[in-house]
Amino acid sequence: MQRIKTLDSMRGLAAATVLFHHIFTRFPHLFAGKFPMWLESVFTSISDLNMEAVLLFFFLSGFSICLSLKNDLPVNKINFNIYTYRRLKRILPLYYFAIFFTFVCGLIIKTAFLTDDFSLKNLAGNIFFLQCAKSYKGNWFAPYGDNGPLWSLSFEVFYYFFLPVFLFVMLRLNKSSNFTTLINRRALVVAFFLSYVCGFINKRFFIPYIAFSSLFYVWYGGFFIAVLYLKRVKDNISDIILQLLLTVLAAAIYYVYPTATCYHLFIGSAMTGLFYWLYLFRHKFPGSILVPFERLFNFLFYKIGTGSYALYLLHYPLLMVLKQQTTLTIIELLIIIILLIICCIFLEKYVVSKKWGFLKRPYLPARIKD
Questions:
Q1: Domain residue spans in the chain?
Q2: How many CA atoms lie within 13 A of 102 on its CB side?
Q3: FRET label pair with 265: which of 112, 200, 231, 354, CA 20 to 30 Å apart?
Q4: Residues 6+ apart with CB under 8 A from 261
């Protein structure tokens, strides 16, 4: 299926937001007193959307995975092997390069052998995608080398390989071989309650996969909308009511139990509803005011989006190196960031173009018929 340009632009927006957050919070002296108060307030508001940007990454990932699958769900051996190969070749090369790059930056700023973040134990945890943000109480592993953005990659990879199991179970429970819109609705409800249950369990004791599952609903929200998009479902009252009920319920739970996880799940639910209404509006009014807005949006963020994964992984260790340069000006920092974005665009393009054939193997051996 042809790529949807606006999706890449949204990734670019999310990556730019995370990048700006880290610049704004790690180089406060470059902003304090240098801009009008109203503009500093705008900068602060943008920076505060850091976590929402990561949730948008999750949502867009679920949406994109569904588009790439079409009707070939990874619930049999052949489809699972193809799906696994495509996911691994997209994630692993840049991810492991980012770990190496983080180590090199640690050598430059002389922290590589001074903190537990660079320990072999922590490296092993990151290699096997078991790391969580340091804010998770009781976490087993932190992002390698204090490269904060790496925390979300363990969540992402977990969703990739939990999805086949999740879809397989949903199909079996519904005694169907076709993933219908009805099953899709039921799956969204299951994902909703699964995430809340795991979120509450995670408050009592920490297990990585339970922590990862606590935000699965956000990721599946993207998958859910993509199913409707592929099936050309138009303003189905059942979908509208379902999303409204889940969003209201998420808001009520957050009101009663105001934790970070409950807030994130409420944002994910609202995000699902928002994208659904945007899809309906775009479908009903193809020549609407959204068209020029999309063109402007794509002009601003599409190119960044094509290198968003590399930018997300690599920007933080570079910022830590730059932070050591006490005489760095905001203009110099801006020039370096622009060069970084350009490098990330070409790097990601190169990595995506490679086949990485060694990753193409029978992860689930399929029976070969004579």
A1: 5-357
A2: 27
A3: 231
A4: 199, 202, 214, 215
The pLDDT assigned to 235 comes to: 66
The 10 Å Cβ neighbour count of residue 124 is: 12
Characterize 92-115 residue by residue with b for buried, 16 or more Cβ atoms within 10 angstroms of its Cβ, and e for exposed.
ebbbeebbebbbebbeeeeebeee
List C-alpha distances in Å: 156 to 151, 271, 300, 304, 320: 9, 18, 26, 20, 24
3 state SS for 223-243 = HHHHHHHHCCCCCCHHHHHHH
Confidence of residue 368 (pLDDT cuts 50, 70, 90): very low
Beta bridge partners of 131: 141
For 35, half-sphere exposure in the C-beta direction (CA atoms, 13 angstrom radius) is 15
Q: Convert the pLDDT of each residue in 217-252 to its tens digit.
A: 999 999 999 999 888 877 678 888 999 999 999 999
The encoded tokens of residue 295 equal 């063109």
Contact call for residues 225 and 275 (beta carbons, < 8 A): yes
Tokens 């940007």, located at residue = 53
* Structure confidence at residue 367 (pLDDT): 55
288: left (phi over 0), alpha (psi -120 to 50) or beta: beta
pTM over 0.85: yes
Residue 292: predicted pLDDT: 85
Share of the chain above pLDDT 70, in %: 97
Nearest to residue 336, comparing CAs of 309, 318, 311? Answer: 318
- Which residues are CB-contacts of 71 (< 8 A; sequence separation ≥ 6)? 179, 230
pLDDT at 2 over 70: no
pLDDT tens-digit map of 51-104: 999 999 999 999 999 999 977 899 999 999 999 999 999 999 999 999 999 999
User: How many C-beta atoms surround the C-beta of residue 263 within 10 A?
Assistant: 18
- Going by C-alpha positions, the residue among 319, 310, 314 that lies closest to residue 109 is 319
Burial of 20 (0-12, 13-18, 19+ CB in 10 A): middle
Helices (H), the chain: 5-26, 37-47, 50-69, 77-108, 120-127, 151-173, 181-204, 208-213, 216-230, 237-256, 260-284, 290-306, 308-322, 330-353
